[in-house]
Amino acid sequence: MVALICQGNRIVQRLVVESPDRLLAKQLILALSNLLPIGCLKVLTYNDTYESKYNLLGGPLDIDIPLDANVLVLRIHAEEPALAANGSLESCRIQVRRRPIPNPRHPRLLDRYKQLLLDSEVHHTVLDATIRSTREHWVSKAKLIYQMSRQKEITPSLNITNVFNVVRGCSEQDRDVLTFWQEGLSKVYKESVIATIHQLPH
Description:
By secondary structure, the protein is α/β, with parallel strands linked by helices. It has helices spanning 2-5, 22-33, 81-85, 108-118, 124-150, 160-166, 175-182, 187-199; strands at residues 15-18, 43-44, 56-59, 72-78, 92-98. Helix 4 (108-118) packs antiparallel against helix 5 (124-150) and helix 5 packs across helix 7.
């Protein structure tokens, strides 16, 4: 499972699942969507053509993906169709068909997800709860980074790099993940932060 979300030292931001079976593609996409904040998801579980506006997309085996698209492409098929028909991915074989460009930064969230997903002793209900808790924890970090970075408007001397170092458990290596997750913050939340900052004394 780690290979599905962690490629080239980054949490994949755009993924295509190829499958002749719409249900299989949908099941895998929904499983992977649990790793990201809801606001970051742009999902189309199955479509005959590639559309870059979606970051989780399912499609047929012959879906035409532009060569310059920085995307992780997976192919899934069922080795035991009876189990797959019940919505289980346990009998499925997943192949990595294409990898995105590697990123030199190694986010800590990547290590956390690897730790969770590779631990065979963790029961699936515990795994679900822990992934949800981890996701919410990093959403909180993204909110804090957003609040602090927006203050640059009234504090021009604020160094954004220092912002990442101030937040506990974060560093410059987490910038890409937290920047991406900030995109998933609600419009209402962002507007409330900006309104509060504008009320602060300059």
